[in-house]
Amino acid sequence: MSFVYEKKGGFLRDVKEKGAGLIFIISAPSGTGKTTLIKRVMERVPGLRFSVSYTTRLPRSNENEGEDYHFVSHSTFQRMVERDEFLEWAEVLGNRYGTPRPDFKKLELEEVDLILDIDTQGAKKIMNEPFEPVSIYFLPPSWKVLRERLINRGDSLEMIKYRLSTARKDMEEAHGYPYVLVNDNIEEAIEKLGCIIVAERCRRLKSYTIKENRKQWEEKDG
Length: 222
Hints:
alpha/beta; 5-stranded parallel sheet; 2 domains; Rossmann fold; 4-stranded mixed sheet; Guanylate Kinase phosphate binding domain; globular; 8 helices
């Protein structure tokens, strides 16, 4: 597999539109804008797929089943836990959230990378997994902006208080992430995230790229 890059959308784009079977973990305090970042980078970088989590909470007015979450009953979620169908799961204010186990062989065959939207506690549980996930943490530009975003997105007062009370502690976990970005300017944040994804693809495919190019050199030189 050879790679050719062109300038498009503000960062280097893989023209062959293929991933490398990588798992990218995106974490941030609620209200930082990670959902928007994920959607936008998937529009620009080819070969990405979003891992849709399961939750027992009710959908918000702007959320769609199978796109934002799989909304299930508490009994259905519990059966999935018992069948070990989650990489990680947690309970927040009486509702459960779980990340389904990826089909790694399918990802590799389809040459797709998977993006997981997981909080810091969930990320800790899978950072040292054999599939070596790439973890990226987004910080809000300020405490004031974070509070305004939570209010504007329509969270309940109870949820806003909970999110703010845990945000500072959550941000301390950023030290454990190899990549930390600030979502101050959305376009710049998307560009940086895209660059990280492309760079990690190149790193993961290093041995394969050397092998294929060596083969081409030998064939050419006879």
